[in-house]
Specification:
Radius of gyration: 20 Å
Number of helices: 4
Number of strands: 17
Strand content: 25-35%
Largest sheet: 4 strands, antiparallel
Structural class: mainly beta
Shape: globular
Helix content: under 10%
Order of helices and strands: EEEEHEEHHHEEEEEEEEEEE
Length: 326
Amino acid sequence: MKKLFLLSALLIFACSYGQGEQLYADGTATDQDGNSFEWISYGSQDWAIENAEVVTYRDGTPIPQLTDYTEFYNLNTGAWLERDFQELGKTKYYNWYAVSGENDNDPNTPKKELAPEGWRIPDFNDWVILVEYLQEQGYCANGSNYYISNAVGKSMSSKTGWSYYNTEGAIGNELTSNNLSGFNAFPFGNSIGAGGEAQFWTSTAHWEKSNEAWWYWMWYQGGYISRNFNYKRTGRSVRFVRNTSTASTENNQSNTITIYPNPTTSILTIKGSAEYNIKVYDITGRKIMTHTGNTIDMSNLSPATYIIKAVDNSNNEEFTYKVIKD
């Protein structure tokens, strides 16, 4: 049985509906295995908006992979397991020993870091800060009757994959209105299977020397995000976080690569000689144009704000811009 704890620490913030704008990736970063992942800046924090895919620790030490969940569940050392949910795709579950780098069999073993250089696994307080920020910015679910003060789970959940639930404000209701915050939590589940839940480890143990640790989760029947604790040997998804002050211009090149003129009436140009795969989205996230090169003709588009995503074909780096079409 789940031990459900509401985010009582967050009740000091009231949500204002309809204020949060659709957010998109602010940049990309690379983990120790060469995997590229997108991130968004939420106030004082940058959060990965994709689940971790690493198979080594930061220092290059391999993380053992298991294929049998029963064997995985009986471990008290770091490991990962891949699950294939067909329609949703594959994902990696990590036990908490991999997340924390701890080893119950040998407490003298040096602690390993799962996150890439400059990043960390979010602790309990990192999640509190994120949820408070989204509350303050108005990312609560309109019409939600579920713990209204922390109903930001809908804005953090993906637009696809969730089980249907016919209640206004629930994550599983009207999926097209999900994911305003861009956090893009997919329902890879664990305890009730794919479509029902998204679960993420924190790096915080429930209490010192406990065999349980804290995790955060969203549920398709609610519009909220909540916290819980469970055995460290269970498997869950992982996200990375860092303080915004540690972000380098190298990982946020969309601020250094110029796109002009902005606002524009017709031709938009990305400065430089690189060739890009360009995609244009409206403010709801619907893709409306694609092009290859370093210019794109927006003359036939209606006046509005658009999101431009451009992937540099030479190094696979992605840049995101907000552009106004007059």
